[in-house]
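thought: fold this chain, then report.
action: predict
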Amino acid sequence: TPNNNGTTPVHIAAQEGHAEVIRFLAILKADITTAAGGWTPLGLSVDGVHFEATKTLLLLGAPITIEDLKQGSDAEGNVRQLRAGLQAWAADTLAQHRIFYDNFLIGCMVHPLELTVEQTTTSIPQQQPNQVTATTTAECPPTYLDDKTTGARVTIATVTTVTPTAITTVITQTRTSNPFLPMLGDEVGLLETIAAFVGIVVGAELRRTRAVGPAIAAIDWAAH
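observation:
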């Protein structure tokens, strides 16, 4: 409940840098974005250079704005360094999620894999011999996709071979799947619980983490 000035427990927790209190209040449906006296909880946390509290507010959905993340003249520390720390944290968090996804969800180390390989070959004959005097082969970097329905990792590799008489392209599609993932998918909240146990961000908080780096980088902080 806000006081006469509109200050809420979230504002106080943010100002003092109490990340766990902020998360608890969010569970109780407290508003984490409302400003009081011109200060949002995020702005107060940044002004105090409270890294964990700032990170928690961003994970909970506080928007990144110039006003909240700029270096104030009366800030208690180096806000520029705080922004750099947030970008590094977001990048590391996404890398850790990829490791979690590869090792658990796909099952590269936890469960036996099922591999399915499909290959398509297309050959275009040259009606007139081209200027190539020897066979040339070019291999494109592989493309990685995730099948959200089955949880399979799809790898697409393309190899093109040019000879004096033909151009041949071979596309190889490899699907790596975990046969246990569909069973886990029926257990509501199970993957989120496991992710929380090992300290991995998933769901809405993962989407917000992905937005942190680009959102900070998109702003010309020198002008503010």
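thought: worth noting. The chain has a mean pLDDT of 83.
final: tokens above.
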